[in-house]
Automatic annotation (TrEMBL):
This is PPP family 3-phenylpropionic acid transporter. Residues 5-360 form the Major facilitator superfamily associated domain. The chain crosses the membrane at residues 5-24, 36-58, 70-87, 93-111, 132-152, 158-180, 200-223, 235-258, 270-292, 298-317, 329-352, 358-377. The lineage of its organism: Bacteria, Bacillati, Bacillota, Bacilli, Bacillales. Keywords: Cell inner membrane, Cell membrane, Membrane, Transmembrane, Transmembrane helix, Transport. It comes from Bhargavaea ullalensis.
Amino acid sequence: MNARWLSLNFFAYFFTWGIFLPYWTGWLTSVKGLSVFEASLVMGAGMIARALSTLFLFPAAAHRLPLTKLMRISILLSLLIGLFYIPAHSLEALFAVTLAFNLVYPNLLPAMESGASVLIQSERINYGRSRAFGSLGYTVALLVIGGLNAWFGNSAILWTMFAGLAVFYVAQLAGPPAVLSARAAESGEGRRGNAFRQLLGMRGFVTVLGISILLQSAHASYYNYGFIYLEDLGVASFAIGVILNVAVIAEIVFFAQADKWFGSMKSSNMFLIAAAGSTARWLLIALVPAVWMFTLTQVLHAVSFGIAHYAFIRYISEKLPRGLLASAQGLYAALGMSLSTAFLTLLGGALYGVSPNLSFLGMAMCTIPAGLLVLATRKRFSY
C-alpha cells in the first residue's frame, strides 16, 4: 500500500517537473517575450533561490513538520505563487515571481526523495520501481505539453502546470504512510545545524556528494536549452515532445530494472559508468549538431542522470542513519540540482549565445573531473 502511494506521488510530482524543467525557459521567451539571456538570468536566479531554500528552509521545515504535511503546504503555496505569473510581463516582475516560486516548489523534490529513503529503510520498498512511475509522469507531461502546444501554443504550459499541481495535491491524500506522518524530530532527527555538521564531517559522504554535484549539474544546458536548441534546428513542437521523451523512456526502463541490474554493484562503479556515459553524451551533441544525433543520445539520459541518481540514493540509504536523510537530500537538491546548475545555466547561456554546440561541450568540464574523482577516492572511502 505504501509503495503504491509512493509510486502515485512520484508520478504526480514528476508530471509537474516535466513541465517546469524543460519548458519554463521556452515559455518565458515565447509567451512573456524575454530574450534567451534574460530568461537565463531569471532561471539562474531561480535556481539560486531553489538552492538556498532546499539547503536551509527544507531541512528546517522537515524537522518541524511531517513530510506529508510539508508537501501539501508546499503544493498549495506553489499554486498561489504561480497565479502571479498571469499578470507579470516585465523582466522585474517575472524575476520576482520566479524567485518566490523557486523558494517553495522545488522543495517538493527532496521531500519526495526523503520519503522514499525512509520507506527504503523502514520497509525495504523497491525504490527503482516506484521511481519509474516518476519518470512515467515526466514523459506523460512531455507528450501532453507537446500536444497542447501544437493546438494552443506555448501559453498552455502555465495552465497545465496549475492542473498538475492540483492533481499532485489530490494524490497526497491517497492514504499517506504513517511513518511519513510523524515529524522528523519525533523519529530521532537531530537539529538541522547539527545534522549538517555530522554530514560534512563524513569525508566519504562529502566525496560522494561532490561527485553527484558534478554529474547532475552537467545537465544544465540540456534542461534549460534543449527545447530551444531543437526549435532552432527547426523541429515542430509536438516532435520536440517526442524527442525529449526518448530520454525519459530510457530512464523508465532503467529505474524499473535498477534494483535487479545494479542492486549488488558498488556506488563507485555506478558513478564511473555515469561519468563515462555523460561525457559521451555531451561530446556527441556538440560535435554532431543534428536532430538525429540529439535524439540518439537521449538514450544516455538513463546513464548520465539515472545511474548517477540511483547511486546517490543507494549510498545514503545504506550508509546514513534515518535522522540525517532529510539533511542529506537537502544538500543534494541544493548543491547538485540547484546551485551548481544555476552557475552552469548562466555559463551555458553565455556559451549558447556564441554557439549552441559550445553550450553542450562545456558540460563535459564537469563529467570528466567526476570520473577522475571516483578513481582517486573509491578505495579510500569504500563506496
